[in-house]
Amino acid sequence: MPRSTLLATAIIPDTRVELKLVEHRDRFAISIPGRGELMNSRSHGSEAALAELTAERLGARPAMRWLIGGLGMGFTLAAALRVLGQDAEVVVAELVPEVVDWNRQLIGEPSGHPLRDARVRVQIGDVAEPIRAPGSGFDAILLDVDNGPEALIRVENNWLYSPAGLQATRAALRSGGMLAVWSATVEPRFTRRLAAAGFEVEAHGLRAHRAGKGPRHCIWFCRRP
Predict the structure, then answer these.
(1) Which one of 21, 149, 156, 188 counts the least CB within 10 Å of its CB?
(2) Number of separate domains in the chain
(3) Are 67 and 142 in contact (CB under 8 A)?
(4) If you average pLDDT over residues 12-20, what whole number do you get?
């Protein structure tokens, strides 16, 4: 049996960057040539924590509406569905249509096939679109886009982390709602930018694995007062 098998490829819109979906003996992985793995099906503790810790901070609310920017391998979405009630709605904005197809057809099993849940609505395109939409009214907006605010692959994503983008995101949240931003690195400048946009900010460090192993990641939890 080969050590790894290339299952599919896709180009990130507005770039020349190629994503590769690879099956290894012990995991699936999505990678970019020259940059290594972006994510894999064995190391996803911080992706799940993005949803779980957001829910803890929000508390109980009826008929919650969440927006997740970036489907990835589905682990953030799966965690959100576990903690939300049956009256919730989760909008998933995924820029790369092939990533949605991969989750449906090839790699959905490790995360429990969350796209099959009736509470999920998939929107192909930039997560900025539902953020900018009038009357969006989200209780939570979770961003796992590129590798964080200072590790961008697609230049258009700069808007999400700019003062203008953060103000638009704040306006898209209901009162007391939460913006949560995943990042591969801690960026103090971004913490200050979030506070300047009117959020109550908590920068939370955590490891990629639940057992406290692996690279150290950061999630910013930002409440709209």
Answers:
(1) 188
(2) 1
(3) yes
(4) 92
Range of the domain at 121: 43-223
| Domain annotation covers residue 21 | no
26 lies in some domain:
no
Would you say residue 6 lies in a domain?
no
Structural element, H or E, at residue 130 = helix 128-132
pLDDT tens-digit series, residues 84-110: 999 999 999 999 999 999 999 999 999
Please give the torsion angle defined by the CA atoms of residues 122, 126, 132 and 138, in that order, rounded to the nearest 10 degrees: 40
CB 30 within 8 A of CB 74: no
Report yes or no: 214 and 82 within 8 Å, Cβ to Cβ.
no
For residue 127, give both structure tokens: 């997560």
- For 112, residues 6+ apart whose C-beta sits below 8 A from its C-beta are 74, 78
φ, ψ (nearest 5 deg) of residue 161: -100, 5
pLDDT digits (tens, 9 = 90+) for 129-177: 999 998 779 999 999 887 678 655 666 778 998 999 999 999 999 999 9
What was the pLDDT predicted at 65?
A: 98
| DSSP-assigned states of every residue in 53-105 | HHHHHH---TT-EEEEE--TTSHHHHHHHHHS-TT-EEEEEES-HHHHHHHHH
Cβ-Cβ contacts under 8 Å for 174 (sequence gap 6 or more): 137, 138, 139, 224
Domain with residue 162: its CATH number is 3.40.50.150
Residue 166 lies in a domain: yes
Number of residues that make up the chain:
225
For the chain, the farthest-separated pair of C-alpha atoms sits apart, in whole angstroms, at: 55
Radius of gyration (Cα) for the chain, nearest Å? Answer: 17
Tokens of 6: 């290339």
